[in-house]
């Protein structure tokens, strides 16, 4: 009998299919990874050139006596800790998710404020009948590639398609854990709301298919008005970049205001004098979403630690403190639950009211849930 052995033929076919799959994955990566980098803004853009934060071809932090300038690269010791000191940095059991109380298509805390935290810095804000989605990331990894990089420590608590229609999508800056290309592309199809972003980030959005009429770019202390909703980009002490090029786009925090209620959203920031100025100009707030995790002495000027978050919250006159930027991604060498444990101690010492929701939990600011220590069994 002539011809190849059946078993050998099958193995060859499997090998050929595997090769095709690898080639397809490589082709996808070659197309998608460069797109993840977005697009550098046009340096001749008059709005960019006119920004007080822009000089020498990049954006800069405001001068500060308590925070230094642009952060440096992590040194060898920091990288070693990130790579090899793993003890306690992930939860020991699945993170308990709340069954999301997705608000109805109309209404939504018309006379008050509600916040649904989805994990990390992603949240849905409801105030005065308006809805705002902040820093949404629904991907499994916060990375230019979904094959590598920091991976979620818990699933998203609700599918993106299940969210109600929102009035605006806010982005604080262009780092991968705050601006997610795949999520943006899906929101273009699922939502009709505009994207309000710091200067320069519009270039990323345009490359990813966001229509021009849905892009609002702001400098610090600029406000856009959408019906009864006012969105003001305020200062932050941080940096930007999706590739080796840094600070070609601006970063910031947000003041979200309706006719009666206000919410503050830190995005990412180190501690600096700007929090007191924001509190004087825009406070008091009904609630403040304060970043508390991913801190380290090596980058102390760009991420708040828990004690600094409480101090900033007091200067903002922040109302109810809702911690964000912890729990979802392993981005620093500190233990997984340390941010919230340190936050609780400092908030108690300073008399600050706070709520610590599970991912997916909706918090009515006027009636926050009692602290139940849900994270304690996981650390």
Automatic annotation (TrEMBL):
Entry keyword Disulfide bond: no
Signal peptide stretch: 1-29
Cited InterPro entries: Metallo-B-lactamas, RibonucZ/Hydroxyglut_hydro
UniProt keyword Signal present: yes
Superkingdom to which the source organism belongs: Bacteria
GO CC aspect terms: cytoplasm
Sequence ranges assigned to domain Metallo-beta-lactamase in this UniProt record: 131-326
Keyword terms of this UniProt record: Signal
Name of the protein in its database record: Metallo-beta-lactamase domain-containing protein
Biological source species: Kitasatospora phosalacinea
């Amino acid at each position: 009998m002539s011809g190849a052995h059946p078993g050998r033929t099958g193995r060859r076919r499997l090998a050929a299919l595997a090769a095709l799959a690898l080639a397809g994955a490589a082709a996808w990566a070659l197309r998608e990874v460069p797109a993840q980098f977005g697009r550098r803004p046009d340096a001749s853009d008059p709005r960019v050139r006119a920004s007080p934060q822009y000089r020498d071809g990049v954006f800069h932090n405001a001068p500060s006596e308590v925070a230094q300038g642009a952060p440096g690269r992590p040194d060898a010791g920091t990288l070693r800790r990130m790579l090899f000191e793993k003890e306690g940095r992930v939860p020991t059991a699945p993170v308990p998710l709340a069954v999301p109380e997705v608000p109805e298509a109309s209404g939504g805390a018309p006379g008050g404020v509600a916040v649904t935290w989805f994990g990390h810095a992603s949240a849905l804000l409801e105030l005065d009948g308006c809805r705002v989605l902040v820093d949404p990331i629904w991907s499994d990894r916060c990375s230019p590639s979904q094959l590598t990089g920091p991976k979620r420590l818990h699933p998203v608590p609700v599918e993106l398609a299940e969210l109600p229609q929102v009035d605006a999508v806010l982005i604080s800056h262009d780092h991968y854990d705050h601006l997610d290309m795949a999520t943006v592309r899906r929101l273009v199809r699922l939502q009709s709301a505009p994207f309000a972003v710091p200067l320069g980030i519009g270039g990323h959005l345009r490359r990813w298919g966001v229509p021009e009429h849905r892009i609002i770019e702001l400098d610090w202390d600029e406000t856009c008005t959408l019906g009864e909703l006012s969105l003001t980009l305020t200062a932050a002490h941080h940096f930007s970049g999706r590739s080796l090029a840094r600070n070609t786009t601006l970063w910031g925090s947000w003041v979200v205001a309706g006719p009666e209620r206000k919410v503050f959203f830190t995005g990412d920031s180190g501690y600096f004098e700007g929090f007191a100025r924001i509190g004087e100009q825009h406070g008091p707030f009904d609630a403040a979403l304060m970043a508390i995790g991913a801190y380290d002495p090596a980058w102390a000027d760009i991420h708040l630690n828990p004690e600094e978050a409480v101090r900033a919250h007091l200067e903002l006159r922040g109302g109810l403190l809702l911690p964000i930027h912890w729990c979802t991604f392993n981005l620093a060498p500190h233990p997984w639950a340390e941010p919230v444990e340190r936050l609780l101690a400092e908030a108690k010492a300073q008399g600050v009211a706070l709520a610590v929701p599970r991912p997916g939990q909706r918090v009515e600011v006027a009636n926050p849930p009692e602290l139940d220590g849900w994270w304690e069994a996981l650390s």
